[in-house]
Design brief:
Layout: E1 5-6, E2 47-51, E3 56-61, E4 73-74, E5 88-89, H1 90-93, E6 100-105, E7 109-114, E8 127-128, H2 134-138, E9 144-150, E10 155-159, E11 164-167, H3 172-175, E12 184-185, E13 194-198
Antiparallel strand pairs: 1-4, 2-3, 2-5, 3-8, 6-7, 6-9, 7-12, 10-11, 10-13
Length: 200
């Protein structure tokens, strides 16, 4: 959720008919004012990338997020001004084999680095994914807008508004650097709203 807590439900216990489903709040007890930030599903060995908008994150196995407690358990440590980003399915890309983390700064910069530069944890703040000056984050001028895990055959859809720019594998090198760096601009964009994977 938006506070960094995680909850687990047995997937086949959820409604399967065509309906609006049932409120998650009928099964879970998140803190007052919290909202749900993303959903993860899969077998216990599935890996996911969790991150917050201040530019930090880590990999985690799905089984390490299981909790029988209706109140869930603490996982991602989120600063008061940061937001939890939508988790990225790392196993879809083939993690922990040769995969890459793609991070987008809202000011229009993109960074790609090898996934093995980011560690696997069960909880915490994580490591710096992309370089964002603390003062600019606190002022709202910069933030991590979106993060993905891809393989060398995937393409990236970069959205600034409705029309995306597609970055293909032969263009990755331009944006490749080490974890925690600032990244490079994606012309003609002055800002980036979100990223999506375009699988081969």
């Amino acid at each position: 959720d938006s506070t960094g807590r995680v909850y687990s439900l047995v997937a086949d216990s959820l409604p399967s008919a065509r309906s609006q489903g049932e409120p998650l709040s009928s099964r879970l007890n998140p803190p007052d004012g919290a909202t749900f930030a993303g959903v993860m599903s899969g077998n216990p060995e599935t890996h996911w990338l969790l991150a917050s908008s201040n530019g930090y994150g880590f990999f985690v196995r799905l089984e390490d997020l299981y909790s029988k407690n209706r109140k869930g358990k603490t996982c991602l440590r989120v600063s008061p001004t940061a937001k939890v980003l939508i988790p990225s399915n790392a196993s879809r890309a083939g993690y922990p084999k040769k995969t890459f983390v793609v991070a987008a700064n809202a000011i229009g910069k993109l960074l790609i680095f090898p996934s093995n530069q980011l560690m696997e944890m069960t909880k915490g703040k994580g490591l710096k994914i992309i370089g964002i000056p603390p003062k600019k984050f606190k002022s709202g001028k910069e933030k991590l807008a979106s993060v993905l895990v891809i393989n060398e055959d995937d393409s990236i859809r970069v959205y600034s508004g409705k029309k995306p720019k597609i970055i293909r594998p032969n263009e990755f090198e331009h944006f490749m650097s080490e974890r925690g760096k600032r990244g490079r601009s994606v012309p003609p964009f002055k800002k980036i709203d979100r990223l999506e994977i375009e699988a081969k």
